[in-house]
Amino acid sequence: MTRLLRGAAERLWLVVLAVVAWEIGTRAAQEEYFPPPSKIVSALHEMWFSGPASRLFLTDKAVDDFSTSLGHLFAGWLLSCVVGVALGVAIGRSRTLNDLLDPLLQFLRAVPPPTLLPFFIMVFQLGATMQIITIAFSVVWPVLLNSADGVRTVDSLQLETARVFGLSRYRRLVTVILPAAAPKIFAGLRVSLAFALILMVLSELVGSTAGIGAQLIGAQRDFDLPAMWAGIVILGVLGLLFNGAFVLLERRLLAWHSGARRLAN
């Protein structure tokens, strides 16, 4: 316990110092557009965390906003993971497919996601489907490109050894190619999760009545600056939690890779 507390103190002291400086600075400046952290925390509590203890202090609005936003985020992200890994592996293993699709993929990847919002709204109408497709299309590229690069750079000696032992294509894919490409695939998944949080908010800024993004735009229209900053803060906290959880999962699933690298060195 002492070690955990010491580790937390070593990591969080700068955050605490920044929050204290923010509180002192904003109260001294009395700038309307930059409320102090105490007011932001008060707005957070009032909007989302003043519910009953049996529901982890979540209000009805918190349940509605968080379930809507996180449902869209993870649906879009998981869809991009499946499509990105499958297509990336196929492109990485086939030079013909890579040469055929690379110009199209590079073109689509270069299109800024916000410019496609009117198109997605026109095709899918306002609602959950449009938001999920917006997230999936916008965040699939890190997964796809990292998967293709990881598969393409698998050690040729490993592949030749697998052929010598008579492994089928499917067995080579499952036991050799995917494990070797896993570090790059996971790097793409981690980057895409951060992008998914951004695209979740972007997709909710237009025509949405529930979700964190809708709360942000509503607070802006009402000129409720503490509530607006509360939405920004909760997005930062969610990003921090998602990254920490993914890092722990990655370390657990790729522990064998770290061990192999230590042995190699």
UniProtKB/TrEMBL annotation:
Coiled coil: none annotated. It is found in: Cell membrane. Its main location: membrane. Belongs to the binding-protein-dependent transport system permease family. Residues 66-250 form the ABC transmembrane type-1 domain. This is ABC transporter permease. InterPro entries: MetI-like, MetI-like_sf. Gene3D superfamilies: MetI-like. The chain crosses the membrane at residues 70-91, 119-144, 193-217, 229-249. Pfam families: BPD_transp_1 (PF00528). It is a multi-pass membrane protein. Keywords: Cell membrane, Membrane, Transmembrane, Transmembrane helix, Transport.
